[in-house]
Design brief:
Wheat Germ Agglutinin (Isolectin 2), domain 1, about 350 residues, 10 helices, alpha+beta, two-stranded antiparallel ribbon, Ribosomal Protein S8, Chain: A, domain 1
Length: about 350
Amino acid sequence: MAEEGQRVSFEKLKNFCQQAYMKVGVPKEEAEIVADLLVRSDLRGVETHGVTRLPIYIQRLQKGYVRRVSQITVVKERGATAFLEAHGSMGHIAAYRAMEKAMAKAEEYGLGWVSVKDSGHFGVAGLFPMMALKRDFIGYVCSNSAPMMFPWGGRERIIGNNPLAYALPAKEYQPIVLDFSLSVVSSGKLILCRKKGEKIPLGWAFDKNGLPTDDPFAGYEGGGSLAPVGGHKGYGLVLIHEMLTAVLTGGKWTRYIKSLYEDDPSGIQGTCHSFMALDPECFIGREEFKKNMDAYIKSIKESAKAPGVDEILVPGEPEFRTEQKFLKEGIPLAANTVKEIKSLAISLGMDAPF
């Protein structure tokens, strides 16, 4: 295990990220939104999509690969649905605005579905359906991504690990938050392992020849493929998510999307997303739904445990506990991430948050 570098408070790290975005021309409001989302990823223990990505996000803004000032327009709007174009805006901002619109639609119609094309990498998928929890709505998102995987039975990296996330409110218990990509692990996990100098378990990825590998570079950055969740079943969901996003909006298919780490002077990475907000008031009512959620969660957690198991957990519970712990103790950052953040601070003429 690589040595932990530093611990830093949520607010201090968020303020640094916000100032870094503003240094390269991002407006204050948008800088605050994306900084909060970025650092909240680390706060919930999802370090692969947190501030370890800040240097590459800033570099892409500086190179003009991403819009510094977001431009998000409505292509079509009808009833409970909306179709947005992000014009190469930051993925975090495009996703945040799209989920806001889905929630507004749900307020009016009970259901909102918003799809976006020409967006970019948006970090942790689960943070966006979690926005719906503030109104006791159910939230959902799916997205396509840059090429990360071979089709089932193939050897050409033309499909993504296309994530999904749900968030469902409860009353006494914490909300259920299910958030995962359709690869065994994310590409960010392999990148982080490579940065830490760690090997990966066999079963996480294949090299460019289709052979299992324990080398994180060979499994992704070196041209390999992430392994799909559930074999052919995960592969099938990957295709459905592409159809519900890129095919639905006429946006870029995964095979035409460049990764964060590739040069992209087009200025449009092109990631596509779809968001849904659903109001339980249309069914048994928000309060009754939350009570039912509590009863169901309780029944799962109190069910018979396997030998050696102390507690049955539900989706989102580990992240909530991590969040509470890190709010008190500070967010731990890997030594290499600390080094990169310090280098970024110097390049921007800022003080590092350590």
